[in-house]
Design brief:
328 residues, Rossmann fold, Tyrosyl-Transfer RNA Synthetase, 3-stranded parallel β-sheet, 55% helix, binds tryptophan, binds iron/sulfur cluster
Amino acid sequence: MADKKRILSGMRPTGPLHLGNLHGALANWIDMQERYDCFFFIADWHALTSSYENTETISDYVKQMMIDWLSAGLSPEKCTLFVQSHIKEHAELFLLLSMITPVPWLERNPTYKDQIVQLASKDLSTFGFLGYPVLQAADIIIYKADGVPVGVDQVPHVEITREIARRFNYLYGDTFPEPQAMLTETAKILGWDRRKMSKSYDNAIYLSDSTEQVMEKVSKMITDPARKRKSDPGNPEICNVFDFHKLYSPQPLVDEINQQCRQAEIGCVACKKKMAKNLIAFLDPIREKRHHYEERPELVAELILAGGSKAREVAQQTMEEVRAAIRI
Ligand code: TRP
Ligand code: SF4
């Protein structure tokens, strides 16, 4: 372990994971667990920053997210999987960091300004929402992470984390490494309506969907809009179903569809059926694992506890150093 670089990342438990999440962040994490000392956690306190009025779903989403992670292939033997609110040390470090973080750093955070506009229906004028990146900085540096695999939207938060770590080191002596954001190119997955796949657009295929639900959602998928009849030649390049074929179908079938579509030799209904079959075959093993964990809630609870103990050990060690550095 010692020779591996440490990485850390988190997800807010805002609902079940869909294919967009899987091919985005999660596939990347699964791949990284072989090469890095990985810490992945469910950011339930961060979920409160925007959903403080509706907290009844959070604990269930936490369990579901852990099951999604495990079924998709994150291994508790290879990485440390835990829940943020189980490690109270994050809150202590958040408090200490809040003492040294200038408010203008937070006010000029582009993600903050963006979210205030996008979520205008919610009252986000809270201290906690402004302080979101300070909590995120605590999450990251308490494990002295070298890298933080995130999407572009989170880069400003990692940047603030580096600034806060630097400021801490300047004030109290070298304690924290400055973590790097690790960006990865990921396939952009569209929902059936050709908008970005997202829970809020209600256009997503979930890892937890049944075979019937997947079939129904695939049958609704918008194809080449210019192709009205089967006798019209289609353009796979602008068709979302074809993008899915590229992800889930074997290459010879992809090539075949590419040809047949352009020559109007296959209809969209048949084409979708072939794709759905391969997508379902891809999801089957994930669904099987999901059943396994769903039937064993005590196993999931145990894994969450065990991951928490591993994380806590590291967090407590860091906090001893932090208290000594601050002399408190
Ligand atoms: N803010 C992240 C998101 O919304 C979640 C998160 C919380 C996180 N703490 C983190 C990500 C620490 C990386 C590292 O996606
Ligand atoms: Fe898309 Fe397939 Fe229809 Fe071509 S045949 S437009 S690839 S769904």
